[in-house]
Specification:
Layout (H helix, E strand, L loop, with lengths): L1 H6 L31 E3 L5 E3 L16 E5 L18 E5 L2 E3 L4 E5 L4 E5 L2 E4 L2 E3 L8 H4 L81 E5 L2 E4 L2 E3 L23 E5 L5 E2 L3 E3 L76 E3 L8 E2 L7
Parallel strand pairs: 3-6, 4-7, 5-8, 6-9, 7-10, 8-11, 9-12, 10-13, 11-14, 12-15, 13-16, 15-17
Antiparallel strand pairs: 1-2
Length: 373
Amino acid sequence: MRARLMILLSISACGFPALERADDGGMGGNVDSPPDAQQCFGSIVKVCFANNAALPTTNPLPQDATIQIDTDSDPLCNAHDNDQKANYCVIAGNAVILASTQSIRGYGSKPLVLLATRNMDIEGTVDVSSNRNPDPIIARGAGANPAVCTGGVAPTGSGGGFGGSFGGKGGAGETVIGGGGGIGGTPADPLTSLPAVLRGGCSGSAGGNTGGGAAGIGGGAVALVASQISLNGKVNASGGGGKGGAANQVGGGGGGAGGMIILDADPTKIGGTGLVFANGGGGGQGGSPGGGHDGDDGGESAAPATAATGGAGTGGKDGGSGGTGSFGTSLVGRIGSGSQNQGGGGGGGGGAGFVHAPTLNPANVAPPSKDPT
């Protein structure tokens, strides 16, 4: 595994550090202090503090019901000096406790890392998913749409946009008489192990023709790093839904791919009945006389194995319905379909992201956990 990761170190030049196992036997706790007295934590997402004096001593989370974290500017980020502050928003404490009445919403360009030098107890919701919020800053889950994303083939004419790809391939946009549907990009190695960096998912593409629906945003990225993790709440890094086409004969936008979730602790010390998912967003409906309907955000699915549906109309000259996003063990987004009378093609749903959640009930985790060796 280490040899593979070293090959992929070049990806870190795009603004992300490579993931690698710390020399602590995979326990997720302190490693032996190097000569400069740094203290390091994490076996997959490694974070080192400058010295013992920099280590956190309290639960860092406020008691607000909803904790909004802008990973580019929030003062909670990197309040304790660490070596990943240029790459991640690291919120660190000796214990990190999120009550069932609380939620964290992480957004911005940097992935979110919650780090406890001892135990972590997540009873509430950690949300780095992306959505259709009209505010583009708040809509983007933490670390979504990174620079390493590669696009697919854009639609032509009034074809539907493609869904974003990451752990799974995004669905194709629908091809109609007025144009060809977009084709999703290549997934990021879904059949082997985790990507070499902590990063979010990729966006879909806009629908074809003037007024085509906007693409759904890829899901964000979050790592929970601790010596022991109890998860009875929810962690969501799903992609956003594509927008419907604005008028007749324009394509719907493709849904965003799911993002990335890492539970980084000794697998024997990870437990709970929580839900963990990084589903793809649904595709937007193709344009109709009254405008196409938006696809659901992946975050709107009720459970890991439930799809975010594509936008759909009520008959007449409605454009094609957007494809459903990836969900459960289905890694691939579905193609948009069903256009009538040359209405714009529906956008395909987004592909799945990546999750590493060893020892949790597989029925509560989607897509299936990837376990580095």
